[in-house]
Amino acid sequence: KHCFPAYTDGFQATEPIFGWPPGNMIPYQSSSELNTAWYGTGILAYDGGGYALDFPLNTTRNDMVAAMTYLSDNRWTDSQTRALFFDFTIFNPMGRFFLSSRLLFEFLPYGRIHTVPSFRVMRIGLDSNRDYAVFVLDGFTYCMIVYYIYKDFQTWKFLGGARYWKSKWHWLNWIIYSIFTVAAVFKLRYWFISFQWVWGDSSLDATQAVFDFEAHGWTYSQIWNWTAFNSIFVWLKAFGYFKYVGDRMSHLSSTVIQASNDISIFLFFF
Questions:
Q1: Statement: residue 132 has pLDDT above 60
Q2: How deeply is 216 buried, as exposed, middle or buried, from its count of CB atoms within 10 A (0-12, 13-18, 19+)?
Q3: DSSP state letters, 207-228
Q4: C-alpha distances in angstroms, 6 versus 10, 12, 44, 82, 110?
Q5: How far is C-alpha 228 from the geometric centre of its chain's CA atoms?
Q6: Which parts of 105-212 fold into alpha helices (H)?
């Protein structure tokens, strides 16, 4: 019997292994060489390096069946294999969406194979008038956020720290600003990579994978997660303006403010 240490980034075999087509050897490549990001959605975390088989876009079904059959018959995975990733991407030309699919098979030490599917939908770049309009409006929104931060800072200077922080509305403002900032960081990262891809080097072989759609899709999903989370607080902020609508809405706003502690606890748990 052979015993192997628990998987860590430091305990990885780096000797070349056989691959496809028959007779080809696959070298170990780091995450920077493969252009893949760290991945931690499974039971274990993986640094993005490993042995990669890249099937060109013009690969036929018969070619793929032959490759999988050959690798299976020759035991491409063995007792030292800890994870196997199948990555493929589909493009919808009508909706201009990419679907990134990742199927992870984790070979656990006690013999079980743990599967983790991941499907992420995203857009890359700006390719329609609607995309440009949304991009401009998003920029305008963040300009307004910067303006309101400046106004809140002036209010803080005028009232002083103790009086300023007594108001729950001021706390709510800074919660909203903080979440907007987190979402902005993800957006900047997303757009920077998107534009780098769209306006990239046209001399690259279009049949080869040179882009980590999984990592980019994760960034895209985080933008929407933080935006959706922030929408809860933005709607709470809207209650502060209901007093200008009428007496009934003013009473509703007052009731929500008085119950703010209970609402906060409810939102935290549910």
A1: yes
A2: buried
A3: TS--S-HHHHHHHHHHHHHHHH
A4: 10, 10, 10, 10, 11
A5: 14
A6: 129-159, 161-164, 168-198
Distances in whole angstroms, Cα of residue 104 to Cα of each of 117, 119, 145, 186:
6, 11, 40, 25
pLDDT tens for 46-89 read 888 888 888 887 888 999 999 999 988 888 888 888 889 999 88
- Per residue in 81-90, pLDDT (tens digit) is 888 999 988 8
**C-alpha–C-alpha distance, residues 210 and 205, integer Å:** 9
Three-state SS for 41? coil
Element housing 115 (H / E): strand 113-122
pTM of the shown model: 0.76
DSSP state at residue 7: P
Kindly indicate the confidence band of residue 179, based on its pLDDT and cuts at 50, 70 and 90: very high
Omega prior to 93 cis, within 30 of 0: no
